[in-house]
Amino acid sequence: MHTRDSGFTTEDQEMRSKNRAHLVFFVWSIFVGIILVRALYIQGFKHSYYIDLANKQYISLTPISFDRGTVFFSEFKKDPVPVAQLRTTYRIAIDPTQLTNPDMVYTKISQYISLDKTIFLEKASKKNDPYEEIAKDISSETVAIIKAQKIVGVSFVKDNKRAYPQETIGSKVIGFVGNDGSRVKGQYGLERYYDDVLSRTSSDQTVNFFAELFTDIEKTVISNKDKQEGNIILTIDAEAERALHNALLETRATWNSDIIGGIIMDPTTGAIIAMDGLPSFDPNVYSNVKDPSVFLNQNVSGVYEMGSIIKPITMASAIDAKVINEATTTYTDTGFRDLNGYKVRNFDGKARGPNTSMQTILSKSLNVGIVFLVEQLGAKRFQEYFKKFGLGSETGIDLPSEASGLTKNLDSNVFVDSATAGFGQGIAVTPIQTVRALAALGNGGYLVTPHVVDSIVYQNGETKKIAEDDGEQIISKDTSERISRMLVTVVDTALKDGAYKMNHYSIAAKTGTAQMVKPGGGYYDDRYLHSFFGYFPAYEPKYIIFLFHTYPKGAEYASATLTDPFFKLVKFLISYYEIPPDR
Asked: Which of 148, 186, 343, 460 is most deeply packed, by most CB within 10 A?
């Protein structure tokens, strides 16, 4: 009989042990394989899902109402008027899990808002869904009425939206707020330029306590905490803006202009009192606009050959350089000049003959006279003066998309380029550049910085007044007074033969008519840009007005289309601002 020692095993036992080991290894291999396949599935196909799920353990987004600062128009002797503000509306929702009689709920609510019954009942039938929206953009007044009925299962969510109570008035300056694909922000105008001041730091993120304790996640997700946030008060006056807007509407309707624009500015400070242009838009429904170019402010972004309103700048340059004396200098006006094959003619082709005065150049708007002035200055000095007036340079106005202009002719070595620039042809500038340059004629010779913001009221209670620079003096005060006298004479004696002379107010003004440029080069024979500028009281001006429109139909000269709207605005400003007479 054989016995087995406890320290040894039989062959069968060894085989069974090996089989069990192989089984364990096989099962373990399958388990590991499953884990590896699952890991590959998670890391590959479901990567983004689980990343998002993990992130939600740290950061959850809780919807809050939209928030943004308010923009105000100024108003003479009154409190500021909102032009861009928040408007509160509500979304109405139902909780199908709490509705016992959906038909009754529909009947009660549909008395006050428009509801599609089929859609309502379909939403009400979702018994596992605690939240179904049934209406949005509902006014506070309507919501108060529905709330008073205390309907079980009906809730209300407050929304803040951007609203523009002045509608089209000033929309070219204000712009609007819209979604750029990543966030809601200012898209055009002041809403865009001052977006950092008007926007509010989002507070719709809640951070998990442990994530905040053990990581720097708050630093990477929530930023701009120290950003200066505030409300904005504009230099633009609500009533002046409305008066300008209505004047542009009437003028465009009368003359069927393509584009029309206008600016009213304080010539001594650069404060914009009114600025508008047509065609325009209502920023409350900006999505209705099919042509995005309508959103651009033509007073800041548009460039135009301005024509004869540039002539006073040429005259002032010649006076300031002391190459002519406006009281004694004369020249022989031949009606046209041949400048190396380029013929410059007076608007009517007529010669004024010998001893033509400097005043006649402005009163009759003589192109040949301007050529004479540029000859006296010399092309180089003429170009230097025009650049000092800021023509071809951005003004620095606090609005986006300002154009610099097309003024290569001010660097040309060809005399004819300077000669034609002297009467506003061959150089294209923006209206805001133009009004700034013309303001220097009346304000003592200073080039000011135009601006639309008066002050910013920060949320911490501080108020920042926008500093008004003294401006660079580009012509002497004496030159400013002398050119102003010449422009007053234009109004008192030449403009419609003196029919618009005001007995108690001195008005310095000049019209401009320029042929419009063809897209492929050259000029139209039958399309003009009309412009008109003037400041008053002429020797200590409070306001400068600039108007222009393109391709007005039915009149060739600006004196026919813009004189009436200009003087209508003059009379409004005198009355509204209680300007005392100066003569």
From this structure: 186
